[in-house]
Each structure stands twice: as structure tokens, then as C-alpha cells.
Write a structure and sequence with these properties.
It contains 4 helices and no strands. With about 70 residues, the chain is mostly helical. The chain has one domain.
């Protein structure tokens, strides 16, 4: 939803003509991939399991609290 609002606003500001609710021309002009494609590219699973999150936080230097 946030991405669509951004693309709608960008299309309006940059005067990129597109059909209502079709933001493909705007995303192609800005060279922005969809969030779902970026998630696949980064290897983020659809359902986040705790071990994946812990390894993600460890790689990027976040503090992981072990509750339980």
C-alpha cells in the first residue's frame, strides 16, 4: 500500500502518464522493483521464523533479546 501511494505521488509530480491503479509505467521509469520481487531477491522468507530473524539481526548488528 505504501509503495502504491509513493508511485501514485511520484507519477503525479513527475507527470508520468499511467492508467488509474496501474503504476508499472511509473515504477519502470524510476527503475523500482516491486516489494515482493525485492523480498525474493534478498532471500526473505514469506513467513519469518525466529532463527532467520536472529541471523538477520546478527548480520546487521542489531541487539537480539532472547525472551523465554
Amino acid at each position: 500500500m505504501v509503495q502504491r501511494k509513493f508511485l501514485s505521488f511520484a507519477g503525479f509530480i513527475l507527470n508520468i502518464h499511467h492508467q488509474p491503479h496501474d503504476y508499472v509505467p511509473v515504477s519502470k521509469f524510476l527503475n523500482i522493483d516491486t516489494l515482493s520481487n525485492r523480498r525474493i531477491t534478498l532471500g526473505v522468507p514469506q513467513r519469518l521464523d525466529p532463527l532467520w530473524l536472529e541471523s538477520f539481526y546478527t548480520i546487521f548488528g542489531f541487539l537480539v533479546l532472547n525472551v523465554g
